[in-house]
Amino acid sequence: MRCAPLNSDKSNTYNANVVQRIIGAKSPRSGGSRTARKTLGTTSTATQPTKVAARPAPVATPTAATAQVRQFVVDEAGEGQRLDNYLMRELKGAPKTLVYRIIRSGEVRVNKGRASADTRVASGDVVRVPPLRLADPAVAAEAASRVPPREFPILFEDEHLLAIAKPAGVAVHGGSGVSFGVIEQLRRARPTAKFLELVHRLDKETSGILLVAKKRSALTALQDQFRQRDTGKTYAALVIGDWPESLKVIDVALHKTLDAEGERRVHAVAADHPDGRRSISLVRVVQRGGGYTLLDVTIKTGRTHQIRVHLQQAGHPIVGDDKYGDFAVNRAMARGEALPGLRFGRMFLHARRLAFDHPASGARIELAAPLPEECATLITRLATPPSAPTT
């Protein structure tokens, strides 16, 4: 029985003797020559309107019908970027929701094939974009000016990169119904910054360490580390129930789909599922109490919703997870009914540790983000034995 592929050839555990070879890494695409990006050609399906002698010709306005198919060749500056980020850079004035919609619908092609938003483009790749009606650049600039500037707690910063503590409830970028996120707010707060790009992502409801590159070279170097699994990522997760001490490694393939509303959903599948991707999470119990367990989860692969689905399929969903969790428990927590007097209305998943090599010096850096106050308060409450009833 074959296993679903895994994009790495390394697998380390806390100190346990788990020496599984992670196989199936994809080699970098050779692409084409390192040619500067250019527009290759256009195609138009518009027909000429019939002239009516008695009426003045209407004023032409840009529409999807009169727009043109465009093709771009990825240059060295775009090497290694996610497809969604590449298109947002190239399609000035295109709303992020539009970019994601045309990718999901299959209208964007990379080297004549369908691609997903997280596909990494390589130098020489040909990216085809369907006819689009784009906003006037002045209108787009005016919309960007309405983004409220915001700085976030800084964990590390130098001339190459910035590490912040992202709060829960804030998207990392705009799109899919979200007008703006962390990166747009940072750019507004730092108008003189020449380059600010997300190195990786966190779910909107996940808090914790988020890296932002301040130079193209830093972005490429850091994203290479994430792809090669050379980073160390540990999350704090509070789950419902008593986690079994013996369950330390979860090696379950995952399959990502889109529901009727276009929202991503991830399912645990058999190892030989044709669309499954091998996914590995390492679990360590930190604290038990009150019918809940606080876990440290280190991910060896970076699949969408990996921790959330792995813990849920093991029978212990994350507290506050509105997609894969126990909705009755979530509701009781939010209303202050589960723990009288204490309301907890977010998902308890926090990116608390991140280790990586500095993109310029090569020095190993290990960052830590303490639990947010609301999470720390909940943990303290669960660790406190209930008071004996008075007689």
Automatic annotation (TrEMBL):
The keyword Nucleotide-binding does not apply. GO terms for biological process: enzyme-directed rRNA pseudouridine synthesis. Its EC number is 5.4.99.-. Residues 81-140 form the RNA-binding S4 domain. It is an enzyme of class 5 (isomerase). Residues 40-50 have a biased composition (Polar residues). It catalyses: a uridine in RNA = a pseudouridine in RNA; uridine(955/2504/2580) in 23S rRNA = pseudouridine(955/2504/2580) in 23S rRNA. Pfam families: PseudoU_synth_2, S4. Residues 25-61 are annotated as: Disordered. Residues 52-61 have a biased composition (Low complexity). InterPro entries: PsdUridine_synth_cat_dom_sf, PsdUridine_synth_RluA-like_CS, PsdUridine_synth_RluC/D, PsdUridine_synth_RsuA/RluA, RluA_PseudoU_synthase, S4_RNA-bd, S4_RNA-bd_sf. SMART domains: S4 (SM00363). The active site is at 203. GO terms for molecular function: 23S rRNA pseudouridine(955/2504/2580) synthase activity; RNA binding. SUPFAM superfamilies: Alpha-L RNA-binding motif, Pseudouridine synthase. Keywords: Isomerase, RNA-binding, rRNA processing. Gene3D superfamilies: Pseudouridine synthase, RNA-binding S4 domain. Responsible for synthesis of pseudouridine from uracil at positions 955, 2504 and 2580 in 23S ribosomal RNA. Belongs to the pseudouridine synthase RluA family. NCBIfam families: rluA_subfam (TIGR00005). This is Pseudouridine synthase. It comes from Sphaerotilus mobilis.
